[in-house]
Write a structure and sequence with these properties.
The complex is a heterotetramer of chains A (649), B (344), C (343) and D (144). Helices cover 28% and strands 26% of the residues of chain A. By secondary structure, chain A is α/β, with parallel strands linked by helices. Chain A has five domains: 129 residues, Rossmann fold, CATH 3.40.50; 176 residues, FAD/NAD(P)-binding domain (3-Layer(bba) Sandwich); 80 residues, Alpha-Beta Plaits, CATH 3.30.70; 157 residues, FAD/NAD(P)-binding domain (3-Layer(bba) Sandwich); 59 residues, Alpha-Beta Plaits (2-Layer Sandwich). Chain C has 13 helices and eight strands. In chain C, the strands form two sheets. Chain C has a five-stranded mixed β-sheet, sandwiched between helices. Chain C has a three-stranded antiparallel β-sheet with strand order 5-6-7. In chain C, α3 links the parallel β3 and β4. In chain C, 53% of the residues are buried. The chains are: A alpha/beta (649), B alpha+beta (344), C alpha/beta (343), D alpha/beta (144).
């Protein structure tokens, strides 16, 4: 190796540094270093003349590396790296020795300060002496985005990105777009109709020239990295050609198979061939292969016989397509907390104990009861309804430790809607606290209590059971200390929100982290709330954590903005200070693979291989590797070793 | 010169050697080693874990220190060993014979000033092995004996309550003379007892190399023998056999840098070891002794062939350390016998 | 008590039927009663195999050597290699597989249970025999059966067994293809980490005085790392030359090895070496105790490794050698790892 | 404190993560909080990149004390680097204490970018704790 030619530039920073540090002495001491061929001090290194002096010195002395002893690298590292680049050498050969914030400003004694400044500078000189000339890594990008999940989050993100000119692939597992929002009756706090605000967006998505909607599809495999992902998508057969289907509904009239209707949460039934709901997007029927008698004219074939449009085709087969995209938005949403987990509230055992979404369907004009609140068991109008909040939330001992955030509001909405439907009925709400942070939220809760007359009881329900045709609800009102006993006609549980099954699947396929509750983990809880830990994969909606519609829409917009910014460039630029594997030393033990927070390392033929685009250069691998087989460029163990020596010389 | 020393008076003799720093076997955490004599010295050791070779050939030796100010010529300062006189008590005859071999190596072609200056200030007071100190002793088959005085300045023989001392060298004589009245003239009975103890010692059963004289030629003929790999199969490549050997003398020279502006440090010699896989590693990545077999062959052939060709004697004194301390049972007696039996 | 013939039969069968390409086991050596490692390839050699209380060696080391030899020869064999493995050896094999050093199907594990005993320590036995020469030593239940010239002696096994065996929590090779001997995992001889606890009760000054003495004795023969199946790196970080040289190895790399320690066998370098080794074995050491056994200058290296093992067990719920698929100790973490020491 | 202790200035190597602790020490500077000059900082990408060998090496080269500082748990710029560090550093700390190195020779702290005063305090406390211990000779190489 030819010896480095390093130049050292010591800044006075006016008197900021020079008052405590003998800058001339620092410059002189540095010239004694093996690799230093040029050394000077100057009053303001960052001034124009100072910067020009650096550039000139690099050229005049054929410097290949630079150390600037000055203020914190957070202020001028970029300045001097740019200078190095302008002078024709790699900016990554430039090191900053912070002798202001970490030295001159915190010490008074000139001798002591000077000694420490020498150590800090010498340490930087040693590091620079082993810096490689690196250039940023350029990655070409595919200007296409895949959105996983066709609920409100996915719809909003797709529209925002498509409107910005990006090509969008919207992948939804169900037969229609819309997600859970489609099941809602009204939305808090304005009580406007959910479908009325969602349907236009769904239509917009379906008609948008930049958006390809892929319903009844699942992402099976994703490879590649930011800018260039490859996604393998499974298209499940619907056995109905949406182009031909006229939505005449003749097929469902003849279909002999009856199964519970998922969209109505089992409150009603559907046929094996069905349309999830009337305004489904795409507007077409789906033949449920599992329920159908056999996809075979010999077995049944009634729907095919009756279909005048000849839209039904029993020979459709699952199909896999591979799509290339530059970024991915994950909007896989939530599920309600498993009902089976809440035996104490009789769910599934005691009739007329419903969950929140079922109650939405009871209230909805398009629902099974055409908007009349009737209890499922006997279709009577329930006169006493108990709403139980925090069903599964805020219970670290048995259920979810977290607050599901939206239940206070939707329970208030339910109580309010119920009172609108059944003015002479009584709505009881058991709650722990009321959390109503949000624009107009607190007022809405107050209206529910005061104007709609919902009875709020602070406390938990200890027990409920069927008693004749009533549900006996036992609880405590902790405000009065009284035991409460209610003979209810119906009970509605505000079940906790949990990450949907699709969220768990997506996390696995995309290899992105999940938090302890299973929600998708953001790259940084404060500063990167819509980024996943993997570059190029973004998060939107309740898959990342419980949130309501406006928050979901805002986050979807934010994710879209990040994608738009990312894909606005022809190539991506990535810092070259990434990990490098010494193949001769690697034994393929996989410790670095496990330790890497970015999944940037994989084993290939028994050796670690770094995906330079994913690597952020944190060095967790270096410290974990037992044989120094992996190191971050320009932050190598050798460099640290020499810096330690410099600090103690 | 022959004398009798009352066992009780050993310490007095050591104390009388005021010009000498005295060492004797002592046990620490179950390990016998030559240590400076503090208080009473007891010579009831089996054999020390390490031979006394480190006195003249320490595991680490600084040759010189260097300092180079940027742009100037390097300045070197030689670091010669101190000139203290050191005497070691309780040296076993096999180890003393090891010293003879080390002396040959470090005076051959060039005088190694570091070795010589240490060696010239050393004296070895040996102790005959009335019984073999280890189950793996085989000094008799390599030209030695449990009562050999080769390489010693004084040979002591344990006669029960007293030692029979024989001066071997002038240094030995002066050590004994310094003792003055402590040493008595031996009576005829003492001489007779010493002679019979020696005879009994030599008659003790030992392990044996079957044909030591034929070994050099037979080993030479066995260079390509497949037995080497077979016998070395279990070798783990550690350095026990050679680091504990009284005759192994390979070393490495390194610069231990202590500062870089100015560049300074020490040039240091440390023991090295032909059983380490990296011993013969070339910069190119080529290793001429890539296998355990090749490395075992080197160790054995150096001792029983190459050294013999150079110096006319085996470079093994039969102390048995490499056998008893080998973690996996590699047994030089067995190896030499097996290879020489199947030679050609 | 395991009949050694059953091990021999198993080895012979495996070789004769061509199910394995070699068997790594123990044989009687030339040094009296002590067993030594052997690799046999011929079914005829199976009768040379032995199994007794001197089978100290952790033979997993030879799986590593085998792998290295194969890599050197650029050979990929189509048959597994069989190995006789005690509980500790089997745990070592698990760690090696966890670190992808070889695959499960590459190894045929002939498990041998230590049952109520373990391996002996030569000096403990010599003390009890009072000068008599032992010709063989087999553990039978809680007793050691020693044959001497004067006849058979039965000694309490616990008085001659190695500390590591007395403290062993798993004297049965859980991972195996075939296993001989009873699973007596529940036996309680001495509580695990007893020696460590005794040592830790010393004051800081006494602890330092102790280790100072130990590390000053070290001659850096590297037997500890040479005998360790986990020290399978081609090049140890404390060595100052580049050992594995590949075509892409640059001259700079060769010339600029970091010298974390010097070759001089002095206290400071010795201690850095041993502490680095203990750190590198954290979560990997399965307490076969071989490093301590082979140390020619009696450095109690098990204490260091035991310390790491106990911390990992108590604070991170980590058990080395328990699972082939689990993450490595230092490459993973738990949210509730101890952090009280951090200010 | 004796005069000798007063005169003795311990040498400290301080490994600071770039994102939190180094930034925190910058804030101490901007706030002009005075603290002893004994600790020379080495900025590393993340506390998770600190190999136990760095610590042993610093002691080997004669550091009287070694300080490690990173982002608070949950705040790691690299998500989980400090979790990995916490486990590894715990082990090396235990090992150092086991062989009888004074526990006060080694210190780890979480210092965020907003905790300039905390960084200054950590250094002050460390220096004060190190002074009574005197020079570190246990692990220091004797290079004569």
């Amino acid at each position: 190796m030819t010896k480095k030619r390093t130049g050292v530039f010591v800044c006075h920073c006016g008197n900021n540094i020079a008052a405590t540090v003998d800058v001339a002495r620092v410059a002189k001491e540095m010239s004694a270093e093996e690799t230093v061929v040029y050394s000077q001090d100057y009053v303001y290194m960052c001034s124009d003349p100072g910067q020009n002096a650096v550039i000139q010195a690099i050229k005049d002395n054929q410097l290949d590396s630079v150390v600037v002893s000055c203020c914190s690298p957070s202020l001028h590292e970029k300045t001097f790296r740019d200078n190095a680049t302008r002078a024709g050498i790699s900016g990554f050969t430039c090191e900053i020795a912070n002798i202001r914030e970490q030295c001159a400003w915190v010490h008074k004694d000139r001798d002591v300060g000077t000694e420490k400044a020498i150590k800090i500078s010498r340490s930087a000189v040693r590091r620079a002496g082993r810096n490689q000339s690196l250039e940023p890594i350029a990655v070409p990008v595919t200007r296409r985005v895949m959105v996983i999940g066709g609920g409100i989050a996915g719809i909003q993100a797709s529209l925002d990105m498509a409107n910005a000119g990006l090509e969008v692939l919207l992948v939804e597992k169900q037969a229609t777009l819309g997600g859970h929002m489609l099941q809602l009756s009204e939305t808090f706090p304005t009580l406007d109709c959910s479908q009325c605000i969602l349907s236009p967006k769904m239509v917009e998505v379906s008609r948008h020239p930049k958006i390809t909607v892929m319903t009844y599809c699942e992402v099976q495999e994703v490879s590649g990295s930011v800018g260039n992902f490859k996604a393998k998508i499974l298209k499940k057969p619907t056995f109905v050609d949406p182009e031909k289907c006229k939505i005449c509904d003749d097929c469902t009239q003849v279909c002999p198979v009856v199964v519970p209707n998922e969209y109505e949460l089992g409150l009603t039934a559907r046929r094996a061939i069905y349309i999830p709901y009337a305004q489904a997007i795409p507007a077409s029927y789906t033949l449920d292969e599992d329920a159908c008698l056999g996809l075979n004219p010999i077995r049944c074939g009634k729907c095919k016989d009756v279909c005048e449009a000849e839209a039904i085709n029993y020979d459709m087969r699952p199909e896999t397509v591979v799509e290339e995209v530059g970024a991915i938005v994950v909007a896989t949403g939530f599920d309600l907390y498993g009902q089976e987990n809440l035996g104490e509230y009789g769910y599934g055992k005691v009739e007329d104990v419903l969950d929140g979404l079922q109650f939405e369907r009871l209230c909805s004009a398009s629902g099974a009861t055409s908007g009349h609140v009737l209890r499922p068991s006997d279709h009577k109008v329930p006169k006493d309804v108990v709403f139980i909040q925090c069903a599964g939330s805020r219970d670290p001992a048995q259920h979810c430790a977290y607050c599901s955030k939206i239940c206070c509001m939707y329970t208030a909405k339910h109580a309010s809607l119920y009172k609108h439907h059944v003015p002479d009925g009584r709505a009881y709400v058991f709650y722990i606290d009321i959390r109503s942070g949000g624009k107009g939220y607190e007022e809405f809760v107050q209206r529910t209590m005061e104007e709609d007359g919902a009875i709020y009881l602070r406390g938990r329900v200890s027990k409920l059971y069927r008693h004749n045709d009533k549900i006996k609800v036992l609880g405590t009102d902790t405000l009065t200390g009284q035991n409460v006993e209610i003979d209810a006609d119906m009970v509605v549980l505000a079940l906790a929100m949990q990450p949907s099954k699709g969220t768990a699947d997506a996390a696995k396929v995309l290899k992105i982290g999940r938090d302890k509750d299973g929600f998708l983990a953001e790259a940084h809880p404060k500063l990167k709330p819509v980024e996943s830990v993997t570059a190029g994969i973004f998060l939107a909606g309740a898959a990342q954590g419980p949130k309501d519609i406006p928050e979901t829409v805002a986050q979807a917009g934010a994710a879209a903005a990040k994608v738009i910014a990312l894909l606005s460039q022809a190539t991506l630029s990535h810092a070259p200070t990434v990990a490098r594997v010494r193949r001769s030393h690697c034994t393929g033990c996989e410790m670095c693979v496990t330790a890497c927070p970015y999944h940037a390392i994989r084993l290939e033929n028994g050796k670690a291989v770094v995906n330079e685009v994913l690597c952020e250069g944190c060095g967790s691998c270096t410290a974990t590797c037992l044989r120094a087989a992996i190191e971050v460029k320009n932050a190598t163990q050798m460099q640290v070793f020499e810096m330690i020596e410099a600090c103690l010389a | 010169m022959e004398k009798i020393l009352d066992k009780q008076r050993l310490d007095d003799w050591i104390a009388a050697l005021t010009d000498w720093e005295a060492f004797a076997p002592a046990v620490e955490d179950g390990v016998w080693a030559f240590r400076p004599v503090v208080g009473a010295a007891r010579l009831d050791h089996p054999n020390t874990k390490q031979p006394p070779k480190g006195f003249a050939f320490p595991q680490r030796e600084v040759f010189f220190s260097f300092e180079q100010i940027k742009g100037e010529a390097p300045r070197l300062t030689q670091k010669l060993p101190d000139s203290k006189h050191r005497v070691v008590f309780g040296v076993r005859p096999c180890d003393a014979r090891g010293t003879v071999r080390m002396d040959r190596v470090f005076a051959d072609h060039v005088d190694d000033v570091y070795y010589q200056s240490r060696r010239n200030n050393m004296a070895y007071v040996g102790l005959a092995c009335n019984k073999p100190p280890s189950a793996h002793c085989f000094c008799l088959s390599v030209g030695g004996s449990p009562v050999s005085s080769d390489g010693l300045d004084v040979l002591m023989t344990d006669l029960g309550d007293r030692y029979f001392l024989a001066a071997i060298t002038e240094t030995g004589k002066s050590l004994m003379t310094t003792a003055g009245d402590l040493l008595k003239m031996p009576a005829a009975a003492d001489r007779k007892q010493a002679a019979s103890v020696h005879a009994e010692a030599v008659a003790q059963p030992q392990r044996a190399i079957n044909n030591p004289d034929g070994a050099p030629a037979r080993l030479k003929a066995s260079f390509k023998s497949p037995l080497w790999e077979e016998l070395a199969q279990a070798c783990i490549g550690c350095g026990i056999c050679t680091f504990l050997c009284p005759t192994c003398h390979c070393f490495d020279i390194n610069d231990e840098v202590t500062g870089s502006a100015p560049l300074k440090g020490n040039r240091v010699r440390t023991w090295d070891n032909c059983q380490f896989p990296d011993f013969t590693m070339h910069t190119s990545g080529h290793n001429p002794r890539p296998t355990v077999g090749a490395r075992l062959r080197q160790r054995v052939c150096h001792k029983f062939q190459y050294f013999h060709e150079n110096f006319g004697m085996h470079q093994c004194t039969g102390c048995g350390r490499c056998i008893s301390d080998c973690p996996v049972g590699i047994d030089i007696v067995h190896v030499v016998n097996k290879v020489t039996e199947h030679a050609g | 008590m395991i009949d050694v013939q059953s091990i021999r039969d198993a080895a012979r069968d495996l070789l004769a039927k061509g199910e394995v390409r070699a068997v790594i086991g123990y044989q009687r050596g030339s040094r009296g009663m002590l067993a030594e490692p052997v690799t046999i390839t011929d079914p005829e050699q199976a009768d040379e195999l032995v199994w007794d209380a001197t089978c100290f060696h952790n033979l997993a080391l030879y799986l590593v050597e085998d792998r290295k030899a194969l890599a050197h020869a650029q050979r990929t064999p189509n048959l597994p290699i069989a190995i006789v493995a005690k509980g500790c050896d089997a745990r070592a094999i698990v760690v090696l597989m966890q670190e992808h050093y070889f695959k499960r199907e590459d190894v045929y594990i002939i498990g041998v249970s230590c049952e109520g005993g373990g391996v002996l320590v030569e000096y403990k036995l010599a003390r009890l025999l009072n000068g008599a020469q032992a010709l063989s030593a087999v553990i039978d239940g809680a007793e050691l059966v020693v044959t001497t010239l004067a006849g058979e002696v039965r000694l309490p096994a616990s008085e001659v067994m190695a500390d590591r065996c007395l403290e062993c929590r798993e004297p049965f090779p859980k991972e195996h293809n075939v296993v001989f001997g009873e699973d007596q995992t529940s036996r309680q001889l001495v509580a695990p980490f007893t020696a460590l606890a005794r040592f830790e009760a010393l004051s800081e000054a006494d602890r330092w005085a102790y280790w100072c003495r130990q590390f000053e004795r070290c001659i850096r023969c590297f037997a500890c790392r040479s005998v360790c199946p986990m020290c399978y790196c081609d090049e140890c970080v404390v060595d100052s030359i580049t050992f594995p040289v590949a075509p892409e190895t640059t001259a700079e790399e060769k010339a600029n090895r970091i010298r974390w320690i010097e070759r001089s066998a002095v206290r400071s370098e010795n201690i850095t070496y041993h502490m680095t080794r203990a750190m590198h074995l954290a979560g990997r050491c399965i307490d076969c105790g071989e490093c301590e056994r082979v140390c020619p200058v009696n450095i109690p290296l098990r204490l260091l490794n035991n310390k790491m093992e106990r911390e990992a067990r108590e604070h991170f719920g980590y058990e080395p050698g328990a699972s082939i698929g689990g993450p490595s100790l230092v490459a993973s973490f738990r949210d509730d790892d101890p952090g009280q020491f951090i200010r | 404190m004796s005069e000798e202790e007063q005169a003795y200035e311990p040498k400290i190597v301080a490994f600071l993560c770039k994102w939190c602790s180094s930034a925190g020490s910058d804030l101490a500077g901007v706030s002009r909080i005075q603290y002893p000059a004994n600790a020379t900082p080495i900025t590393v990408p993340c506390s998770g990149s600190i190999s136990p060998l760095y610590i042993l090496s610093a002691f080997n080269k004669g550091a009287d004390g070694v300080l490690l500082s990173g982002c608070h748990i949950g705040d790691c710029h690299y998500i989980e680097g400090n979790y990995l560090a916490r486990r590894k550093i715990y082990l090396i700390k235990e090992l150092l204490e086991m062989v009888g190195v004074e526990p006060d020779r080694f210190r780890m702290s979480w210092v965020s970018a907003a905790e300039g005063a905390k960084y200054a305090q950590v250094v002050k406390d460390f220096v004060a704790d190190l002074k009574p211990l005197g020079p570190q000779n246990k692990l220091k190489a004797d290079r004569t």
